[in-house]
């Protein structure tokens, strides 16, 4: 496989994969969702998967059973590795098939593995010959310009997306820390109220200024923390919102409740 063809296949199938994801989301949600890890209209996992399938399975494209079985293995391995690596790097599980039977750690499941197998057979038998013919008709200069532009945009988009995910994780960390502080303050107030009430009951001094001042200070701290918490959870960052909508089953390994709060806010109109 020529290097230039690899770039063509990666780009074309990455774009087609994005279109497929958007159509799938539209059927399930009734609205447009910009699917994919990146912001632009390309899903790299589809591009990589297509290149691997074309490279390894072209010799077997006339053997339907072998093509189908091998496609399931390659696409499932790629999906598992992608999910595993993304989770280890960003501490977020971007999709989760745990609710489906015959899944492996939620990264892959039998239902979608079979679907990928069927899709790959269609690609090898029907779609790829059309793509090859399309590439042959592209003038060399126009093709080189197209690949250069898409490569530059892909790199920029990748950097921007990584920055977005890192900022999202930092935001989740801040929400988690503030939530913990609110809980600690509340627990402290509760314990002090309990202890002081018992003590005041003995002394019959429920209206003492010292009693009121102590809890007024605590209340001010909690009010300030709650205001900061509300600002962090209510802030409408469009890039964070897009990622959460693109991966509705995303789970954070460290900040589960904080992410759920952002997901609830993202679901609001």
UniProtKB/TrEMBL annotation:
Recorded superkingdom: Bacteria
Transmembrane intervals: 6-26, 38-58, 64-86, 107-128, 140-166
Entry keywords, A to Z: Membrane, Transmembrane, Transmembrane helix
UniProt protein name: Membrane protein
Source lineage: Bacteria, Bacillati, Bacillota, Clostridia, Eubacteriales
């Amino acid at each position: 496989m020529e290097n230039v063809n690899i770039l063509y296949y990666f780009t074309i199938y990455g774009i087609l994969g994005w279109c497929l994801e958007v159509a799938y989301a539209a059927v399930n949600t009734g609205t447009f969702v910009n699917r994919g890890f990146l912001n632009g209209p390309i899903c790299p996992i589809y591009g990589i998967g297509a290149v691997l399938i074309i490279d390894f399975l072209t010799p077997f494209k006339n053997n339907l059973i072998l093509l189908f079985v091998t496609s399931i293995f390659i696409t499932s391995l790629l999906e598992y590795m992608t999910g595993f690596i993304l989770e280890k790097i960003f501490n977020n599980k971007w999709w989760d098939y745990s609710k489906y039977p015959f899944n492996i750690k939620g990264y892959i499941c039998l239902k979608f593995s079979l679907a990928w197998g069927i899709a790959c057979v269609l690609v090898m038998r029907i779609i790829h010959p059309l793509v090859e013919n399309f590439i042959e008709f592209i003038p060399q200069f126009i093709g080189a310009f197209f690949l250069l532009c898409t490569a530059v945009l892909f790199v920029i988009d990748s950097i921007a997306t990584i920055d977005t995910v890192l900022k999202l994780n930092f935001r989740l960390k801040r929400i988690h820390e503030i939530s913990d502080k609110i809980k600690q303050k509340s627990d402290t107030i509760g314990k002090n109220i309990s202890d002081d009430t018992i003590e005041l009951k003995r002394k019959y001094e429920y209206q003492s200024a010292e009693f009121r001042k102590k809890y007024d200070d605590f209340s001010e701290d909690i009010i300030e923390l709650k205001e900061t918490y509300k600002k962090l959870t209510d802030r409408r960052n469009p890039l964070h919102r897009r990622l959460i909508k693109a991966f509705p089953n995303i789970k954070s390994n460290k900040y589960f409740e904080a992410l759920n709060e952002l997901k609830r806010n993202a679901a609001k109109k």
